[in-house]
Amino acid sequence: MRRGMHSHYVLKRLLQIIPTFLAVMLVVFLLVRLLPGDPASAILGDRATADIVERTNRQLGLDQPLPTQFALFVWNLLQGNLGDSISLKVPVLRLIGERLPVTLFLTVYAAALGLLLAVPLAVLAAVRRNTWVDALIRGVFQVGLSLPVFYVALQLLTLLGARLGWFPIGGYGSGTLGHLYHLFLPALTLGLNLAAVLVRTLRSSVIEVITAEYVEFARAKGLRPRLIMTRHVLRNALIPTVTLLGLNIGALIGGAVITETVFAIPGVGRLMVDAIFGRDYPVIQGLTLTFAVIVSLVFLLTDLIHARLDPRTELS
Amino acid sequence: MSAPPALLQVRDLNVRMPTPAGTLHVVRGVTFGVQPGEMLGLVGESGSGKSVTLRALMGLYRRPVTVSGTVEFAGQDLLRASEAQWQATRGAQIGMIFQEPMSALNPVLTVGTQIMENLRTHRGLRGRAAAERAAELLDLTGIPSPRARLNDYPHQFSGGMRQRAMIAIALASEPRLLLADEPTTALDVTIQDQILRLLLRLREELNMSVILVTHDLGVIAQTCDRVAVMYGGRLMETAPVGALFREPRHAYSLGLLRSLPGSGARRAPLQPIPGGPPNLLALPPGCAFSPRCAYASGACLGAEPPLVPVAPDRASACVHAAALPSLTGEVSA
Ligand SMILES: Nc1ncnc2c1ncn2[C@@H]1O[C@H](COP(=O)(O)OP(=O)(O)OP(=O)(O)O)[C@@H](O)[C@H]1O
Ligand code: SF4
Ligand SMILES: [Mg+2]
After folding, report:
1. In chain B, what are the domain boundaries?
2. Contacts of A313 in chain B (CB under 8 A)
3. Which CATH number among 1.10.3720.10, 3.30.565.10, 3.20.20.80, 3.40.50.300 corresponds to the domain A93-309?
4. Is B256 touching ligand 2 by the criterion CB < 6 Å?
5. What is this structure's pTM?
6. pLDDT, tens digit, for every residue of B21-41?
7. Nearest atom (ligand 2) to Cα of B287
8. Between residues 10 and 29 of chain A, which touch chain B (CB distance below 8 Å)?
9. What is the distance between the alpha carbons of residues A283 and A286, in angstroms, rounded to a whole number?
10. Which of B74, B77, B112 is nearest to B93 (CA)?
11. Residue A82 distance to chain B (closest CA, Å)
12. Which residues in chain A are contacts of B58 at CB distance < 8 A?
């Protein structure tokens, strides 16, 4: 019965996503057209005559009134067609299909590294709260939080990549191990940033849970300290962290755009940057749609995990 | 006449808690013993230090709270025990029922998990055997269709059922000593009766000792062998239950008994003790109860009266212990 209720809920949430997408698409559609410059000049360069620019615009369908362009875009979208890239002349869908796995890999990798750093350090800070250990952990991450992602990326690149030569300074590698190796520095960059956000929340929720009466009761039951920490403390303390992690997925993807550029990783982040500079409207629109889908799905997933972790949650 | 060795012997137990307003001396020099199979009632007004005493016995306090004195359980001093000795005692040989079942049960774990983790840790039961036993324990405490309820979360239980689940958890390890902090307050009379009967039966079957904390002298009269009366962090009087009810030897015990509603033909007017619990940061000189005591005299105001033997098996910290009226006369009058 629970199961049935869940799938009903998931379906409802998925249907709710559709109007959100339409709104996102409209905003992006208008925004890209507000950017100074246009695709034709970007393709043809400064020396093109007004005549040629106009002809190119006509070929690209950009001479139509905006409502017509938008209707056409939505119509194509409904048929699973995101259009062709203006500069690369290939279907946007194929471009995204090639690049997206790289970015997803990087994002998941970064989230994993972030959690791997944040959970033990937050627990340590909470257990040793108000000691120098706590102060050190919090201080380091406080500083980390105020450093821009590209700065951290460059520092890691210089130190661990160029100077010590422990990790490659760019590229994607091949095979899972190759990806793990090549993406280590960019994932660490993003993971550190994420950990800085998570440590603070996790530390305070661990402190809150450690002093809860049910943890005292667990101690009175004579359970082993490790079991108390994992089953009674972390299970509860991770609930707000999951939500926070989900909310930060947008920031993580935003960070991926920057890191992919710094580390020359062939993901959608790089694609996005190139598309913006090239005024490649269909690619920008396609990517935005993709990001919106991912963020919505992650939010949904977050809610489902939250419900799993906290049986008191009512999904509705 | 040498008494059999006590299962638990507490001597001069003190608990101090630093707070922003100053250090609270919450439990002050508490001394008592519990025999194997004995049921000791611990009674006193709200804030008198009953729960803190139980928590201290379980070794649940950590810095900045300090606990001193000796807590001798089955011959070993728990306050000086190693972590390994504690591991073999806490939860295993001494079980505890917390006062607030809502906050003491973990909200994200099923009731079954919370019973079975005890069975696994202390009884070595796992898998199906643990589930069977857990259902048995729920059944024992009177929870209907126990097998199905194992998969429920605490918030799906009613207040009374949570209380019973807590009892099932504490009993899972079959402890030799059960510390029960108001185990029946949340329950209606029928269920309260059931639970008390259960405790009495377990005491018979397992020769389990129980310290039963309650506000309710009626519950004590019904179940306990001995009673310890607590006030302002100190024991005021310890006595066999019958003797205390007939002939209290402390003015505070007398006050408590007089505030009991009589029953049946003995219905006497209720006389609550005027005034409120003492401020631990500003205790009066001498007896802590003196500002509220009808019998107070100059003799009560010097040093705090110690708990001293006043009869075989009885002790009192009242200067005027011998001068207090016995209640039998009053009731029959
Ligand atoms: N963690 C704590 N920090 C500060 N003061 C505390 C703490 N725990 C208990 N106290 C104080 O110690 C005193 C005794 O509390 P305790 O809980 O033992 O009372 P009690 O006799 O169990 O009362 P009740 O019948 O209401 O449960 C109270 O004044 C309480 O405010
Ligand atoms: S010692 Fe004195 S003040 Fe205290 S209870 Fe006895 S008679 Fe009252
Ligand atoms: Mg209490």
Report:
1. 31-50+82-93+176-264+286-333, 100-174
2. none
3. 1.10.3720.10
4. no
5. 0.82
6. 888 899 999 999 999 989 999
7. 4
8. none
9. 5
10. B74
11. 44
12. 220
